[in-house]
Write a structure and sequence with these properties.
Blueprint: H1 5-23, H2 26-34, H3 40-60, H4 62-73, H5 75-95, H6 100-114, H7 118-127, H8 137-166, H9 168-188, H10 206-215, H11 224-241, H12 243-246, H13 248-270, H14 280-306, H15 312-318, E1 325-327, E2 330-332, H16 342-364, H17 371-397, H18 408-432, H19 438-464, H20 466-475, H21 479-502
Length: 515
Amino acid sequence: MPRQIPYIIANEGCERFSFYGMRNILTPFLLSTLLLFIPIGDRTTEAKHVFHTFVIGVYFFPLLGGWIADRFWGKYKTVFWFSLIYVAGHACLAIFEHDLAGFYTGLALIAFGSGGIKPLVVAFVGDQFDQTNKNRAKVVFDAFYWIINFGSFFASLLMPVFLRDYGPAVAFGIPGILMAIATVVFWAGRKKYVHVPPAAPNPDSFSSVARTALLARAEGQSRPGLTVAGAGAVGAVISLCMTPSWGFVIAACTALVLVLAFGGIGVSMQLERARGKHTDAAVEGVRAVLRILIVFAMITPFWSLFDQKASTWIVQANSMDSPLLSIFGWEFKLLPAQMQAVNPILVMLLIPFNNLALFPLMRMIGITPTPLRRMGMGIAFSASSWVVIGMIQLWMDGGDHVSILWQLLPYALLTLGEVLVSATGLEFAYSQAPAAMKGIILSFWYLAVTVGNLWVLIVNAGVKNDVVSGWIAGSGLSPIAFQMFFFAAFAAVVAALFALYALRYKMVDNYRKTA
């Protein structure tokens, strides 16, 4: 095992405590403190909008961080300098607890700072391995994901209590201190890391090959791929023009999705035209990236479901009964935000359970738990969790008093889905990415989270529409119950499509060669 791994793992544990510490109390803080000037009937919707807009930023800026690392600074320097921005964002949250502009500035700095960390720490872990010890990489990726949830568990358990008992300044200040510690720990291991230098300008880069494929002419043939890509660009412009009615975040993210989707389809239609001007390896590398992006696109509904446990599920928990619990004589009632601690503790249990029991059992009965199979199963489990949470909402809408402990079942199903999708996805993304694009391909992995949260904003905006709200009222469902069943159906359909695509996907091995 590379001796530098403990520095990266310890850094990730502290950073994840800081991130989840502030993220998991963000919705309760918005509802109870920062958004009190908004009419109570609109406060929940606005809190969800702010929360998911923040998450969109957190997972959008990795595009920038991955590009800077791959082309200029390298992974270590990018992670370190962006970590300092991250710390400054935490400081703003603690200082400007009653100032809307100051607090939102802090959220923006955290989102921007995380852009230099999220796509790169995972790739930086992978850089510490080569062909001689790559068999240990899966263990480290699992440990990496385990420590994420170790930090998340204690943050989810403690920060709601600090928010209630000591106020926002302390509750947001503690995660800031942990982020500062994470930065120092990462810096301390600087002389032990394997530093893969940034890639030199490459005439056979992904963007160069894609541009050649789109613009190249073939005698006697039109350029249908360029037409498709152009249609995506036109759609993006139209989306941006809708900013006054849709809002900037929805309009801009939709424009990005249209450019990527239609551009990718266009490139794939004409990719063979790039041969000759670019090497065969470069052309096949672009083909591999396009196939990976299809997988990423089909994972976006999972993130729609998963990230709402910190918004929609907390809103539901606010209206549930919290019974008096006793552990070793200590009596307490769970706060709504503390239910999120169920997720990381289950992750820490399920990862070793899957590796030691579930996956060996699957192999014994002749089913190989490939990464794509695991991810497809995870999407299906997440869909089932939202069916259960929707049924709970129906009981509550019917006037029943429901214990907050009923959320344990959907949390368990959603967490099983998370372990199968997210932990596996980190391994899948690194192993499938061409050597020169590991940072940027992992940025696209995180961009899937942005798109997942975009679906949430779109659905929330749609529910406000008079026609849609009238239709929901006619169905007999409350708006929140309707959204729950809608997202469950959305994920179930995509899980079926994912299973079909997985049958055709050919895995590759892109770990670096021995030094």
